[in-house]
Amino acid sequence: MQKLTGRCLCEAIEYEITGELGPIFNCHCSKCRRWHGAAFRTRATIKSSQFKWVKGDEHLSGYHSSENTVKTFCSICGSSLISTYDESPDKIGIPLGGLDQAPDNKIEGHFFVGSKSPWYEIDDGLPQYDEFPGSHAKVRETSHQE
Ligand SMILES: [Zn+2]
Ligand SMILES: [Zn+2]
Q1: What is the pLDDT of residues 32-59, one digit of tens each?
Q2: Ligand with minimal distance to 59 CA
Q3: Is 19 left (phi over 0), alpha (psi -120 to 50) or beta?
Q4: 43 CA distance to ligand 2 middle (Å)
Q5: pLDDT over 60 at 1, yes or no
Q6: Ligand nearest to the CA of 9
Q7: CATH level 3 topology of 3-108
């Protein structure tokens, strides 16, 4: 079984994930872009039972970015750590940027492409979704095919 570790920039906080990550997507929503200061956030959903803080959890801070979502970050260095959901306490959103190793599974596509950065062009050929991939999400052609 895969075991992954991750840490924040100042290394005060360390965490461990046991088992394979859920589907990995690049999220282009404006909240993820602002939270990470980047064109997009590469993230996966995992089960809460797969995750544990190894060190430094006394340095965690949280911010309610929406009614049901808490963004957890390091209060020393400000690194973005995990997302938790008040209505789904069994799940955690994990950004891949803090991991020490490569996960076994690969990035599956892009979501919230409808609100992506105007200065960033997606050209990897992976599926793109205006919002979440699902029954009412519109699949877009990748930009290099347009
Ligand atoms: Zn830190
Ligand atoms: Zn997002």
Answers
A1: 999 999 999 999 999 999 999 999 999 9
A2: 1
A3: left
A4: 9
A5: yes
A6: 1
A7: 2.170.150
Q: How far is the CA of 74 from the centre of ligand 1 (A)?
A: 5
Give the pLDDT band (50/70/90) at residue 136: very low
Contact (Cβ atoms closer than 8 angstroms) between residue 74 and residue 82: no
Distance 10 CA to ligand 2 centre (A): 24
**The two three-digit tokens of residue 65, written as one number:** 């970015």
In this structure, which ligand is nearest to the CA of 56? 1
Instruction: Give the Å distance between the CA of 51 and the centre of ligand 1.
Output: 18
Q: Which helix (H) or strand (E) holds 31?
A: helix 30-36
List the shell of residues around ion ligand 1, using CB closer than 5 Å.
8, 10, 12, 74, 76-77
pLDDT, position 89: 96
Residue 123 carries which side chain, given as an amino acid letter?
D
pLDDT at 135: 40
Single-letter amino acid code for the residue at 56: G
Is residue 134 predicted with pLDDT exceeding 90?
A: no
Residue in 24, 74, 19 with CA at minimum distance from that of residue 48: 19
Rounded to 5 degrees, what angle do the CA atoms 119, 92, 7 make? 75
